[in-house]
Amino acid sequence: MNRFFILILGLLSLVGQVSAQTMTLNEVLQLAQAQSVSAKRANTQQRTNIWAFRSFLAQYKPQLSLDGSLPNFTRSYIQVTQPDGNIQFEPVSYNNSILNLSLSQTIAPTGGTIFVQKQLQRFDNFIQNTKLYNGIPFGIGLSQPLFQFNPMRWDRKIQPLLFSEGNQQLIESLEQVSLNATNLYFDLLVSQVNLQIAETNRVNNDTLYRIALHKLDLGKISQNDLLQLQLSVLNAEKDLASARQTAAVASLKLKTFIGYRNEENDRSVINQTRPLELTIPNQIPDLTVDVNRAISEATANRAAAIAFKRRLLEAERDLEKARKNNGLNATLTAGYGLSNQGPNLLDVYVRPQNREYVSLQFTLPIMTWGRAQAIVETAKANRELAQQTVEQDKLTFEQEIFTQVTLLQMLRQQVVLTAKADQIGQNRYQIAQDRFKLSDLSVTDLGIATQEKDRARRDATLALRDYWQAFYTLRLLTLYDFETNQKIKY
User: Fold this and answer.
1) How far, in Å, CA of 475 to CA of 490, rounded?
2) Considering 43, 257, 419, 465, which has the largest number of Cβ atoms within 10 A of its Cβ?
């Protein structure tokens, strides 16, 4: 198997005047994680997730606010009804400013709000040249919904799940970056292998054609065989041009994805001219992955597993909301404090009077023509649908992991077998080439040996690509590193 990797490495030098930069798969993945647009977008989404959760937590802490109208000036004419019923328009010119300082605290279990406040109001009558103060030196109050849906109680259950889901989604997004980079890496690697095969075939066919010309003069080869070799030379030229174009496109895609920079010159512009020379990731991990362990880790780590719980809670929340919003709704508002008024500011604070208020507002639907029941029944059906969908998604979730574990083990065996087949194909072609030079092999048999040699080389490279794609797909599906036996963290 090592001989296969050595042979592949020998084929991966790029033709050109600009020196190539050799890169390994790990180096490409590190670049993708550090500077690709996909990775940056994932990190930005994570910051959004963090600040959204901090905003949620802040709702349950005391809120201090200052509000008011300062100034609040009016000069106009207003309608005034006289004692005899007539209307007169009287001029007014006043300023009615107010400031209110309040400290409030939500009560999550009940959905209510308790608050403490201080308030000061000043009224200036510019026509009569008078002023008057009114204020609340101290006040405490409570606003409590009764028989209503309490969103805060559900948010305390759902928002932490959303936060955890977002954290795991960051890891999944970065693992997806690794998987995408791996795919592009092997797209370029396969195209480079095909390019080297095309270059080798062109040189070999040209050499064999020249030998055939000499053999034709000696009468050891027919004109038909010579024409077949000439056609092989032309086909090799065509395959070489196509392979160069494919390799250039694959290189551009990989460089663009990982944000490849010219570290010696321009660090801000993607360098599309300097070629990349990719190495074969020949250290295949000797993994024995237990399916149950993989499913267990995926359930503990994946955002989708957290989403299963969240989706069920959201369905329960929507059902409770439908029930309570279509029944008796009431709000109790009560307060106690001190208040006073006077022509001077200090009058507000001298022997203030008690300030008390209490009110109960309610709404009771009496006739809805079945609308309330329809809303509740719809929420029930949606909850049942959510439960069924989650159960199906769990089965798909586990089946996907089981399939990937099985595939990984099979592909490792494929890498070993195709490497052996590649070595056999190279040896057989060398023997066929020597036999043709000695006039002991027909052109047709030589062509067959060439095709089998090329197919074996491509199959070996594609098997390696499939293995690493499966390897990083399993990491993505479980968010677990089975090489080091630890959870993946960033």
Assistant:
1) 13
2) 419
Q: Are residues 194 and 235 in the same domain?
A: yes
* DSSP tally for the chain: helices H, then strands E: 9, 11
Q: Which residues form the domain of 79?
A: 69-107+112-149+328-364
How far apart, in Å, are the Cα atoms of 134 and each of 100, 117, 120, 121, 125?
12, 14, 6, 5, 14
Q: What is the mean pLDDT of residues 349-367?
A: 91
**Nearest alpha carbon to residue 430 among 457, 399, 453, 404:** 453
Instruction: Note whether 405 and 468 are same-domain residues.
Output: yes
- The pTM of the full predicted model, rounded to 2 decimals, is 0.79
Average pLDDT over residues 413-438: 82
Between helices 303-324 and 151-217, what is the axis angle to 10°?
150
For residue 122, what are its two tokens?
A: 């000043």
28 and 76 fall within a common domain: no
The residues with which 98 forms a beta bridge, in sequence order, are 69, 121
- Domain-embedded: residue 278: yes
Q: Are residues 344 and 459 in the same domain?
A: no
Within a domain: 473: yes
Element (H, E) at 87: strand 87-107
User: Tens digit of pLDDT for each residue in 162-201?
Assistant: 999 999 999 999 999 999 999 999 999 999 888 888 887 7
